[in-house]
UniProtKB/TrEMBL annotation:
Enzyme nomenclature, EC number: 6.3.2.2
Pathway per the UniProt entry: Sulfur metabolism; glutathione biosynthesis; glutathione from L-cysteine and L-glutamate: step 1/2
Keywords on record: ATP-binding, Disulfide bond, Glutathione biosynthesis, Ligase, Nucleotide-binding, Transit peptide
Domain of life of the source: Bacteria
Broad enzyme group: ligase
Subunit architecture: Homodimer or monomer when oxidized or reduced, respectively.
Catalytic activity from the UniProt record: L-cysteine + L-glutamate + ATP = gamma-L-glutamyl-L-cysteine + ADP + phosphate + H(+)
Similarity-based family: Belongs to the glutamate--cysteine ligase type 2 family. EgtA subfamily.
Protein's name in the database: Glutamate--cysteine ligase
Role, per record: Catalyzes the synthesis of gamma-glutamylcysteine (gamma-GC).
An MF annotation (GO) of this entry: glutamate-cysteine ligase activity
Gene3D superfamilies for the chain: 3.30.590.20
Annotated PANTHER family: GLUTAMATE--CYSTEINE LIGASE, CHLOROPLASTIC
Amino acid sequence: MARDTTDNRPIERVEELAADLAMGCKPREKWRIGTEHEKFPFYVDGNRPVPYEGERGIKAVLEGMQRILGWDAINDDGKIIGLVEPTGQGAISLEPGGQFELSGAPLETLHQTCREGNAHLAQLREIAEPLGIRFLGLGGSPKWSLAETPRMPKSRYRIMTAYMPKVGTQGLDMMYRTCTIQVNLDFETEADMRRKMQVAQRLQPLSTALFANSPFTEGRLNGLQSWRGNIWRDTDNQRAGLLPFVFSERFGFADYVEWALDVPMYFILRDGRYHDCTHITFRQFMEGALKDEVTDGLPTIGDWSNHLSTLFPDVRLKRFLEMRGADGGPWRRICALPAFWVGLLYDQAALDAAHDLTADWSFEEVDAMRNAVPKEGLATRFRNHDLREIAREVLAISRKGLSARRRLNPEGYDEASFLSPLDEIVARGTTSAEELANAFNTRWDGSIEPVFLEQAY
């Protein structure tokens, strides 16, 4: 998230929070696709991490991007930490370890999404290459220890860094040493949100397997296909993972609100200053827990929006749905991830087929699959099948959904072509992580350095 919200409208009743989520309901013709992708910056000289400060640091990259884009700077305590397009059509932000993120504009087609990604990477190369910087498309930092990883000067990250070790064993690794590709998608009604969220939550482990791309840690094989997926198993389980209540036939906005109210907060923002609120839940905030601690310590809609942005379930609900299961990867997969989910969720026949396929998958079964996928990938067993077999069926549904949308490029091709990288993975039966691990053991001769050539933007 590039910029924390400052919406000072007061919250008077819990019911207002469900109504706020419901404001995301949109007619089908207004549905859009918002793609986010993160990548690790590194110096070509020595494959070293890039700090924030310095003539060739992250700050210099952001300032250079601002010059060529003309976007507004986002500042935190006087330091530039991101950029936002003046009308809200896209943003650039920094993750805690300097991971560079584009939060794309809400677009109508995947063709536009791919053009956006191409333009962003070209602009980034224009600024970064003269500084000796390139970017790595992986789900996990392959070489640097946590101590070697830079820290970005963003106030909310200081609060999270202090809090994470109290609630899990891998939260700092999540913050500083992982990258993802995400897509944000719309819903029409509460019932439509329910069906999409249920399908997406059940299929999120499959997405993790298809996009598994983090087999290295600190220069060695870590024994996993998605180290990033494994990290999410013990980051902060109060606010992350699968949500059992989503499996209910009666799940709705109010259920998500009730869960979110009882998750500890990270902060509130007042007059540009972040106040640590990790000692209370949002429900306690609603009950007045901060009114004597902080000036203007009563909850606002902005506080609620910021709180929702600090929840990390596999599928996150705001005024749209966020698909959060995939590792970061090379350019082609930046387009493949939104294609996978748009095909499944934006065509009614495809959504119905995906629902019929997964409707009887229980929370316990999906949770077991989620726990197995980081190590086993597409070989993970589910009932009498492995995920490779299920992937074939799900990709066929997604392809039909994309073809039915009839969004054609100037050459007359529809959006289904963006699934090709996933078709290749399923056809060969090995994930990107397995291919990288094989390269490490054979032609790379046990060295991590070639990954910075082969997976770089």
